[in-house]
UniProtKB/TrEMBL annotation:
<dbReference type="InterPro" id="IPR024307">
    <property type="entry name" value="YmaF"/>
</dbReference>
<protein>
    <recommendedName>
        <fullName>YmaF family protein</fullName>
    </recommendedName>
</protein>
<dbReference type="Pfam" id="PF12788">
    <property type="entry name" value="YmaF"/>
</dbReference>
């Protein structure tokens, strides 16, 4: 028995030595399967005499079920360098009028002529 499926592939973060991709199915047997993304932005902690701004869009995740999103971006270029931000959001936090958001937090990569990192935290849109 064959079931028609369509979707798209999302590039991995290279953490798998076999180089994998994530498959997001958008239709299964002719029925739509919803996926969605969230935007996020913020300002890092003030460390080593400066902070950085960041913004990005999460990887897609399924709608209508409990889920998290992976995220990755670079900070703004300040004080002669930038940092990477990457992680996985928390689970769904419902909004009173419908919809949801996710919280995220972490630390940047270590960069700069005076090597340091910054903390960050926020909520997706």
């Amino acid at each position: 028995m064959e079931i028609p499926v369509s979707g798209f592939m999302y590039h991995s973060d290279h953490s798998d030595p076999m180089h994998s991709h994530h498959l997001y199915i958008t239709t299964w047997d002719g029925r739509p399967v919803s996926v969605h993304v969230h935007e996020y932005k913020g300002v890092t902690s003030y460390d080593a005499g400066h902070n950085h701004r960041y913004a990005g869009t999460t990887e897609p995740a399924p709608s209508g079920v409990q889920h998290t999103h992976k995220y990755f971006t670079f900070t703004s270029f300040d004080d002669g360098h930038r940092h990477q931000i990457r992680g996985i959001t928390g689970t769904v936090i419902p909004l009173p009028g419908g919809g949801h958001y996710h919280e995220f937090s972490g630390v940047t990569t270590v960069e700069g002529t005076n090597p340091h990192r910054h903390k960050y935290r926020g909520r997706t849109n």
